[in-house]
Write a structure and sequence with these properties.
Elements lengths: L29 H4 L9 H14 L3 H5 L8 E4 L2 E4 L1 H19 L15 H12 L11 H19 L1
Antiparallel strand pairs: 1-2
Helix pairs in contact: 4-5
Pfam families: Retrotran_gag_2
Organism: Abeliophyllum distichum
Protein name: Retrotransposon Copia-like N-terminal domain-containing protein
């Protein structure tokens, strides 16, 4: 059997595109992409799913404060005009804020109703739940023991 060869050429492996994500709003379907709803007991698990989504869609800057809201107006030919970057930022931030809120259990939503931005939601949830003792491993010690007991019960059941 002949050895397989791959053609070599001088084509650069770097692909460039004129498509720019910053010109397109990103909407996250929380029910499909972040199905775990935040409860007072599962902050770390909830945070993990959202952190991955935010990195994947390049939206982490909205919640960590590194993507700063542009000024509302700009000068164009010495005339004050609406800044389209500001309009885009506000729209994207509200889509993200809405997706975050949609991923909260009903009992958690009242904690974020006064927030104005996705960053406000993120910080409020972090300060409320990240230090909660029952959220460190996604469950309490008791729940961990229950899980071990359920595994033992399953192995006994599967044996027969």
């Amino acid at each position: 059997m002949p050895e397989e060869t791959f053609p070599t050429n001088n084509i650069s492996p770097i692909v460039t595109s004129s498509f720019k994500l910053e010109n397109h709003l990103i909407s996250i379907n929380s029910a499909a992409q972040a199905p775990l709803k935040l409860t007072p007991e599962n902050y770390l698990s909830w945070h993990t799913q959202w952190y991955s989504l935010l990195i994947g869609y390049d939206l982490l800057g909205y919640v960590d404060g590194t993507t700063i809201c542009p000024s509302a107006t700009i000068k164009v030919d010495n005339v004050e005009a609406v800044n389209p970057d500001h309009v885009f930022w506000v729209r994207q931030d509200h889509l993200l804020r809405g997706a975050l809120i949609a991923s909260l259990a009903p009992e958690v939503i009242p904690f974020v109703t006064s927030t104005k931005t996705s960053r406000d939601v993120w910080i409020k949830l972090e300060t409320t739940y990240a230090t909660h003792p029952r959220t460190y491993n996604g469950s309490s010690r008791c729940s961990s023991q229950n899980h071990q007991r359920q595994q033992q019960d399953f192995y006994i059941y599967a044996k027969y």
